[in-house]
Task: structure prediction
Amino acid sequence: MRAIADFDDLASYRRFIDEIISRNNAHNAKHIQAERPALRALPGQRTCDHEETVVTVTSSCGLTLRKVFYTAPSRLIGHRLRVRL
Result:
């Protein structure tokens, strides 16, 4: 394995990295081309990747969510919070 100190300048190091990446990409190109016909277009907008629920902060500065007790700042006692999981 070569270290950055083994190169004369930053440009030499970048050429070395580009060569390695090009080799890896060329090796994987066959696999990518084989998979390309099965690929579908990406959705027009981002999907929802979280679950949202509303919880109330108790007088003990905490809230329970999915049977787990979490603490919250005391200024939030009695407030309802929207939590995203």
In short: The chain has one helix and four strands. The mean pLDDT is 88. The first helix runs from residue 10 to 35.
